[in-house]
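Q: Predict the bound structure with iron/sulfur cluster.
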Amino acid sequence: MSLLFNDFKSWKSHCDAEQLPLYQPVVKYEIEQRGGNEKEIWEGLLRAYRVMKEAVQTGLEEEMSTKSGMIENAGKKVYQHPTPVLSDTFQKLVARALAAKEVNSCMGRVVAAPTAGASGILPGTLVTLQEIHHFEDKKILECLLVAAGIALIIEQNASLAGAVGGCQAETGSAAAMAAGAIVYALEGSVDQVFNAVGITIQCMLGLVCDPVAGLVEVPCIVRNASASAIAYSSAQMAIANVSGIIPVDECVQALGEVGQSLEDRYKETALGGLAATATGKKIAEKILIKDIDILPD
Ligand code: SF4
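A: Predicted complex:
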């Protein structure tokens, strides 16, 4: 069964041959990997979705700030601002992704989907999707399974970790998972779902991992918001049959190839990119001094 998640082509052929919805083989895979039964899988998914919704709520309602001074209630600021730049829905999407990610930076409870660094993207996109289209929870849980299948294939052929493949592997994969899930929920065809994944990877390709002071705060927070927006734009294009031209499996290969070629300073080492700017270095120095100050004698 796990061979099924070697690539998108195999996943599609299996579903076509067996007349299965995309999420069904993922349920089977989960049972094979973890044991238990289907009921337990659905219960686990519901728990995960609840944690995602709570993270969004917590981030929008509670104080979200970190010792570094880099996190300061970004989700709430966006949510409450009187000027929507596009629409109320877009404003909420951005605010929710920021809010859930801030909960992670403030050491709160999140679902790593696929990683903690990208933990605002699926909550932001799925909570917004459910609100717009009034989906039952069951549909969102199916979305989570589809997203998990997408992540399995990316992990197999590229990477999901910033330390291995740059931020394209982390927020890029989360955005791809979200885009595919959105198109699935809107009853797009399998080709449209996978095209949404491919388009998203194309949009996120090359993004480096460069967290300031080595903390998963800046630019991580804002990238969760922008990745959520890209997930929606990719889904919109895919559902309108705008082709990404490069097949999704080849996009994943490109993700892996670019990830491998990135220098180490762009892989969570905080030695390059934004972390290596004058301001980034100053913040890192300040944090180090603070940490030394609180060390016991
Ligand atoms: S910059 Fe690095 S640590 Fe931050 S979200 Fe991206 S991959 Fe994760």
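A: Residues 45 and 141 are 6 Å apart (CA to CA).
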